[in-house]
Amino acid sequence: MAGELSVYEIIEKHLFESKEIAVSSLTLKQLEIKERLMLCVSKRIQNPLMLDSEMVRYLMNGCGGSCPVVSQTQAYRDVAALTKIVGNIQLASKAWYRYMIVEGAKEGYEVAKTQKDSKGMAANLDKIGKYTRADKDDDAFDWEQMFPPSFEPSDDITLLDGIQPIENLEDERKNFRALFKGNLLKNAEDIIPEK
């Protein structure tokens, strides 16, 4: 059904709640999955460059004995849900390493400056320029790739989600007109001007 939440979407809403609070909202099976996902989040934070295949093996081995062993299929489902819930931590890790390189180069520049080492200063500035892309022009937005949406009018009601066509539409319209016209005539009152 379109409006129903998946198991992982339900768990995501309660992922960072304590077990005592989550137990009132989740089933025992969902609590077990939540526990596995929390262990995977911790593992991913400890080692952001960990491959998905390694995470699958970790889950299949029961997260180092901390939870029940799962099948390979379930492990892949959990890894997909983990990526959907917490995003791609590897990209954040890459940004962190870039930040560390730039900060280290800044410190190296200050050390080289105090020692009056022009080569060291130039090398550190070169690293900063490389990792901040300061030596390259900003990428201009390619307006040629932007297309306006193309809307095509249609009288097909089935294109709208959740709306079904009405059979004998003209008969329904006539019945509604007769109903409202009858109510209108029944409730109508003549206005008599006051003298």
Quick tags:
195 residues, mainly alpha, 61% helix
Brief characterization of the structure:
With 195 residues, the protein is mainly α.
What does this protein look like?
With 195 residues, this protein is an all-alpha fold. Among the domains are: 7-87; 91-132. Helices cover 61% and strands 0% of the residues. It is built from 9 helices and no strands. The chain has helices at residues 7-13, 19-22, 28-46, 52-60, 62-65, 72-86, 89-114, 118-132, 169-187. Helix 7 (89-114) runs antiparallel to helix 8. The protein is extended, with a radius of gyration of 32 Å. The termini are far apart. The model has no long low-confidence stretch (mean pLDDT 81).
Summarize the topology.
Elements: H1 7-13, H2 19-22, H3 28-46, H4 52-60, H5 62-65, H6 72-86, H7 89-114, H8 118-132, H9 169-187
Helix pairs in contact: 1-3, 3-6, 4-6, 7-8
- Strand count: 0
Q: How far apart lie the N and C ends?
A: 65 Å
N-to-C series of helices and strands: HHHHHHHHH
Strand content: under 5%
Tell me the Rg in angstroms. Answer: 32 Å
Helix content: 55-70%
The shape, in one word, is extended
**Biggest β-sheet description:** none
Mean pLDDT: 81
Coarse structural class: mainly alpha
Q: Pick out the low-confidence regions.
A: none
Number of helices: 9
